């Protein structure tokens, strides 16, 4: 009986930490998206941001390698980011959302 209670407590604690991590990741994603939108170099690029356990992944298309590098710098500067995975493609034809 004691073991069952211990297992339940452990599962509840794991669920709590998982929820906290998910909320933190959502906040990091929002911060990175906002920062990219506000950055003049990257603001018109088609960059998708996802975060898992503090690791940010950037996907999408950018016009130049410099824009891709700048997007990584912006993401790395966001509070809570542990690492940035750059999966951006340089197309020379990034989406212009004016």
How would you portray this structure in words?
By secondary structure, the protein is an alpha+beta fold. It has one domain: Histidine-containing Protein, Chain: A. The protein is built from two helices and three strands; from the N terminus they run αββαβ. The protein has helices at residues 2-38, 65-77; strands at 46-52, 55-62, 83-90. It has a three-stranded mixed β-sheet. β1 (46-52) and β2 form a beta hairpin. The chain is elongated, with a radius of gyration of 18 Å. It starts with a helix and ends in an 8-residue tail after the last strand. The relative contact order is 0.18.
Provide a brief overview of the structure.
It is built from 2 helices and 3 strands; from the N terminus they run H-E-E-H-E. It is of the alpha+beta class and 98 residues long. It starts with a helix and ends in an 8-residue tail after the last strand.
First-residue to last-residue Cα separation = 64 Å
CATH class: Alpha Beta
How does the major sheet shape up?
3 strands, mixed
Structural class by helix and strand composition: alpha+beta
Under the CATH scheme, the architecture is: 2-Layer Sandwich
Rounded Rg: 18 Å
Q: What is the number of helical segments per DSSP (H or I, 4+ residues)? A: 2
Number of strands: 3
Order of strands, widest sheet: 1-2-3
- Give helix % range: 40-55%
Which oligomerization state do the chains in this entry correspond to? single chain
Q: Could you state the order of secondary-structure elements as H and E?
A: HEEHE
Supply the number of structural domains: 1
Q: Mean pLDDT score, rounded? A: 83
Outline type: elongated
Question: CATH topology, anyone?
Answer: Histidine-containing Protein, Chain: A
Q: β content, as a range? A: 15-25%
Unreliable residue runs: 94-98
